[in-house]
Amino acid sequence: MNIVSSFMPFLQVFFLAMTEPTANAFLELVTGWMFLPGRSLADRIRAIPNSRPRDAYYRVLASASWSIEEVGLRLLRLILALAPQETLFLVGDDTLLARKGPKIFGAGMHRDGVLSTRTRTVNRWGHAWVVLGVVVESCRNPGRYYSLPVLMQLYLSQATSQKLGRKYRKKTELVLDMVRRIQRELPEQKLHFLGDYGYTAPAVLRQFPRDIEVTGRAHSKARLYEPAPPRGPGRGRPRVRGEQLPSPQELLEGRASHREFEVAPGRVYRVRLASAKGCFFQVPDRMVEVVALQHIGQRREDEVFYSTSLDAGAEQVIRWYARRWSIEVTFRDSKGHLAVGREQNRARAAARRTAAMGFLMYSLVVLWHEFAQPNASTSVRNYPGKRHASFADMLAALRRESLAEDRRKHFQASPQSTELQKKYEYLEKLLILAA
């Protein structure tokens, strides 16, 4: 079984970073991964039809000479070539990939954001990955956004860093390094970063380059100030901040307008909304637009957002932040359908490459379905109210096209009976759904 030929141009981002023998083994490994994600690398290798020694596939991840960062940057340029954007929206977040075993490289105890609540923290043993993705609007379903991972870093906890003799680095430092790396790669491109409070808090905003716009969350009691007034005559230290402004909570307690607007297709907000422009206490030299809203008719807490783009407007700031949710969908689909995070890597290079390769493969499958799949309307999973193809449909389409091309290659010369053709198509569908 071989991967469909229309998917090969997208795999060039990997091939160009590898030698020819490594690329050949990598292609077979990807074929097994797409048809049988499995619970381990051994399961994926069992789905490979060739008789190459099993060690060859492990060497692709553990010892072959190629860079996952180089592949990510090539993927970034491929995304911009297929979907040019005046402003490139970046989204950053972290996710936990649970592991088992004390010999897994880089594993440690991390907070599980899925199982934890505000009053209860659940820690699990595994890998914490910090991922930076590019937000791309679907050309087939306008209004739907995908977060395509391009760069990612393995986060090491303080205990793990000390054990491995490495300098401890915070998650925010890893995100900032990746954002600056993209800025160096695309010096002429406008960048706009989206993130939750952990990555856009005022203390983190202070470290972002001034030419990168940021949209994120703020605290309801955040201290806002007017810009510092011009320095007057006389001696003394000049003022750093102007007069203090009402906090977002105080804005909602005062006069607020009632709004009803669509944040995303099918998602309407009815809120009391108040906005103001000012500077955070920690960042007195950068103006932001703060938007505080209170939901009407829903049992939801008050929310506060901000953006450094001052001419956007309150509703646009909320719509921008809503795009951040696409990275949560990326994490769910990568883990659920590509089995990212189920490998047991003991080698350092394999631990840093395998999960990252899975995130990059997610991006390639989405790009293939959006720009190279002619039968995007067909779906193997239909239910009432479904408006667009899910990632499961995209992966099923890739398998279906690969099987169809393989069938044409091997059976076109000899005519098949109608009954045999029906049985073959039925087995294909079972394989697509079972995988």
Percentage of residues in helical conformation: 25-40%
What fold name goes in the CATH topology slot of the largest domain?
Transposase Inhibitor Protein From Tn5, Chain A, domain 1
Order of helices and strands: HHHHHEEEEHHEHHEEEHEEEEHHHHH
Please state the structural category: alpha+beta
**What is the CATH-assigned architecture of the largest domain?**
Alpha-Beta Complex
CATH classification class of the largest domain: Alpha Beta
Terminal CA distance reads 14 Å
Number of helices: 15
Task: Work out the radius of gyration.
Answer: 25 Å
List the helices and strands and how they pair.
Layout lengths: L11 H4 L4 H16 L5 H6 L7 H9 L5 H15 L4 E12 L9 E4 L11 E15 L7 E11 L2 H7 L6 H15 L4 E5 L2 H4 L1 H4 L7 E5 L6 E2 L18 E2 L2 H6 L3 E8 L2 E14 L6 E9 L7 E5 L6 H9 L3 H12 L10 H24 L19 H21 L6 H17 L1
Parallel strand pairs: 1-5, 5-6
Antiparallel strand pairs: 1-3, 2-3, 3-4, 6-12, 7-8, 7-10, 9-10, 10-11, 11-12
Helix pairs in contact: 2-4, 4-13, 5-13, 14-15
Question: How does this model look, in words?
Answer:
By secondary structure, the chain is an alpha+beta fold. The protein folds into three domains: 1-66; 69-228 and 240-330, Transposase Inhibitor Protein From Tn5, Chain A, domain 1 (Alpha-Beta Complex); 391-434. The protein has 15 helices and twelve strands. Strands 1, 2, 3, 4, 5, 6, 7, 8, 9, 10, 11 and 12 form a twelve-stranded mixed sheet that branches. Helix 2 (20-35) packs across helix 4, helix 4 (54-62) crosses helix 13 and helix 5 runs parallel beside helix 13 (348-371). The longest helix has 24 residues, at 348-371. The model has no long low-confidence stretch (mean pLDDT 88).
